[in-house]
Amino acid sequence: EPKPVPTLVVDALTVRFSGLVALDNVSFTVAPGTIHALIGPNGAGKSTCFNVVSGVYRATAGAVRYAGKDLTRLAPHRIARLAVARTFQNIVLTHGTVADNLMLGRHSLTRAGFTSTALRLPQAVREQRRHRERAAEIADFLGLGPAFDKPVGSLAYGDRKRVEMARALCMEPKLLLLDEPVAGMHPTERVAMAETIAKVRDALGISILIVEHDMGLIMRIADSVTVLDFGRLIADGTPERVQRDPAVISAYLGT
Ligand code: ADP
Ligand code: MG
């Protein structure tokens, strides 16, 4: 029986970088099975927040809790082991085939040790085959089926961003963190990616925290939204409410 999807709680988070307050006392909750968006102008503190949740940055004050655990001082690989997977804002994969990249995502789940895998012991071979089948399923789910054995370098930009997301999904996360998943995409690729993200929520039932600059995209797929500006939370609620908030409108018009 699958374990329940936990709630992510960001509690009074503050991050300072020598003098600069990147995040100032920010709190929000990501409910199980929902898409929660973190939006705001450039420099608002979105990636910083994301990096604290995934263990890459240290909080100056406040806490991040998930599945009854305090993540605030855990290393990134310990957080990943709690079924939290992330993508990066600017990484676009260039090496290997789609299958190779997805198998890297499966690596953290591999039970057989290095030696038995290298010696191709039957159990390790069976396990590798299962991982490959699951990776192929996830590729199909994200529309990458026909590209599975192609080099990622030969794919269109939008598809490479999809491989990045597929690789995160190959870790079988309960919480998926997406940093600007449609950045650099054409409008048609953006709409398709938004639909895919909503499909991931609906079909897998996992929670998704998404950082995005594109308001239109967020309004289409998010269940709840937190808006940051200069490190402060300026609005929090449903997309409809946040969109009409005067503080949000002026923050966006101001950039
Ligand atoms: P966003 O993702 O909303 O565009 P960031 O979280 O990347 O914003 O940045 C928020 C602020 O923190 C910016 O002023 C940025 O320059 C600063 N900042 C982010 N990361 C670092 C860092 N590692 N060292 C120093 N300053 C940083
Ligand atoms: Mg950013």
From TrEMBL:
<dbReference type="InterPro" id="IPR032823">
    <property type="entry name" value="BCA_ABC_TP_C"/>
</dbReference>
<keyword id="KW-0067">ATP-binding</keyword>
<keyword id="KW-0547">Nucleotide-binding</keyword>
<feature type="domain" description="ABC transporter">
    <location>
        <begin position="8"/>
        <end position="255"/>
    </location>
</feature>
<dbReference type="InterPro" id="IPR003439">
    <property type="entry name" value="ABC_transporter-like_ATP-bd"/>
</dbReference>
<dbReference type="InterPro" id="IPR051120">
    <property type="entry name" value="ABC_AA/LPS_Transport"/>
</dbReference>
<keyword id="KW-0813">Transport</keyword>
<dbReference type="InterPro" id="IPR017871">
    <property type="entry name" value="ABC_transporter-like_CS"/>
</dbReference>
<dbReference type="GO" id="GO:0005524">
    <property type="term" value="F:ATP binding"/>
</dbReference>
<dbReference type="Pfam" id="PF12399">
    <property type="entry name" value="BCA_ABC_TP_C"/>
</dbReference>
<dbReference type="Pfam" id="PF00005">
    <property type="entry name" value="ABC_tran"/>
</dbReference>
<dbReference type="InterPro" id="IPR003593">
    <property type="entry name" value="AAA+_ATPase"/>
</dbReference>
<dbReference type="InterPro" id="IPR027417">
    <property type="entry name" value="P-loop_NTPase"/>
</dbReference>
<protein>
    <submittedName>
        <fullName>ABC transporter ATP-binding protein</fullName>
    </submittedName>
</protein>
